[in-house]
Amino acid sequence: MASNAQCSPCSEGGKSMVAFRFCSDCEEMLCKDCVVYHRKFKATKSHHLIEASSIKTTIPLTNKYCTIHKDIFLNFYCVNHDKVCCRACIPKNHQSCKDVIPLEVASQSIKGSYLLADMRSVWKNMNETLCGFDKDQQNNIIDLEKMENNILQQIANIKIDFLKEIEKLEQNFKTDLAVVKSKNLIKSIKTKSSLSNLTALVQKKNQALEFLKENGPNTQLFLELKEQVTEYPEVSKRVQELISSSQRTILKLKEPANMVIPSIGSLIELKEPCNVRYNPVHLSIFRKENEIQLLPGAAHHITNCVATMDNKLLLCNFEYGVNKIYIYTDCKDYATEICLEDQPYAISIFLGTNEAVVTLPNLAYLQLVNTRKMEKSGRVNIDKGCYAVTTFEDTIIVGKHDEIQFLKKDSTTIHIFTLCNMGLIKSVYYFHKEHDIVCRSKHVLRRIKLDFNKSRRCEVHESLQLAKFKDKVQKLSNVEKPCEMTSKYHIGSDVIYQYNISGEGGLAVDEDECLYVCNKSSNQIIRLAKDGLCEVIFSRDVCLENPYSIFFSHNFTKFVISDTLGFIHVFNVKRY
Predict the structure, then answer these.
(1) In the prediction, which pLDDT does 454 show?
(2) DSSP 3-state assignment of 256?
(3) What is the topology classification, in CATH, of domain 8-54?
(4) How far, in Å, are 450, 461, 467, 471, 497 from residue 491 at the CA level?
(5) Is 0.85 topped by the overall pTM?
(6) Which of 84, 138, 193, 328 could tie 313 with a disulfide, CB 3.0–4.6 Å?
């Protein structure tokens, strides 16, 4: 920012004073005297003031007023509608909403939120794509010049043998070539102009986030993010249309078949897609849809839940002596229950079928359940102590103490993997494309690359290399903001990443194969990318208490959280 910026309040009063600080709350430049007054008054003394000389980019201006009630500040956030509102909007549009909280509360953790991280990735990805596209367009212009020179050289070589006859044809050809070149240059220049405008917009959005992250108040950053989420689909569409409509021009000379021809060749104009591909970064916005209170008066310890293709919710109640699976229709209404011989801990549905499998840790078998009739069917014999379960096609994968077992419905064991120092595995998820498996015990979360070419009983050892990196293993307990993955190491090419965790809880995987980890002790749900980098997705800020089990619906449009207080929280997932 220019060092001679003027003080905004003084300028309004007819004075010309050099600005000394910038108030990001008031969005005004302040001189030294105004800074003193700003820090005295109760209404402004908590505002964020920064050195005017330290501002290197254009200051982002965020709309702080309600679009309906133009003169009222946006001071509240409705969790149920995922919408910022003013005090006048609440009686009319949010009177029945349970979770309408002050904007200051909603934005407390915004600088460490997944939305900020995702939004920054969105603009970074788009900016990199546009910069690559700009470079590609510049190369196309240079290539047009080179191709023209090459063709002209070819003409010059032909001209040696046909100098007299070719003179007139050469002039005609040069004219055609110039027209084609001019046409394509004009198109490329026009495209670059559109590209420049779009790049400037993307950089502006990205700079706004960076500035507000470092210097702005949480409320302003929150508002900016909400505004950018709304703008993102349109900008993304413009980028997609600009890139997909662009074509590279290839100019070549088609030489004559023999020398006795009335022409020196014809100009071939080929079109091919540009070398840049735009792969948008997807945004997932979670909006609370409803909250289910389990049967009042009954004892509840919901350890796992899944949903069928027709949105029937199945809940495992691990409370001692209850021995039941509860069924809710449309993820909201109690329908019936299935009584079992012992406590059900985990459940997994065979995708595309009407069958599920349930673990009964105290019994020597797994229970199969018909999810259409909601009744018990067959059994799969196995040793006691199986807690975690997941399925892939017709294969069942269970977790025990330091062990993962693959088996069929007829009780035939396919593979057994021994995982040293893992403990009792309570949750498991299998990434079949990569042959990776994620296991969770009370204290460890580990992603492992499985080698099915090894012997029937494979051991994944905790070698000296793991002991060497003990101090680098990340902790997911009480995470206030996403931590950086510094413990990405390999043990015999088996372990991809590992985290220390605190307490039990479930796992879920979204459409992009990011892993979601439930952390009851810190009231958080954390998202892990494939490389192990983590971000807090849900926390106490969204009224989350003691979460235990989580899952996505089969089409990834709903995200369900069960807690230990007897509530089921259903979120609608909107993907941009």
Answers:
(1) 61
(2) coil
(3) Double Stranded RNA Binding Domain (3.30.160)
(4) 12, 8, 10, 16, 10
(5) no
(6) 328
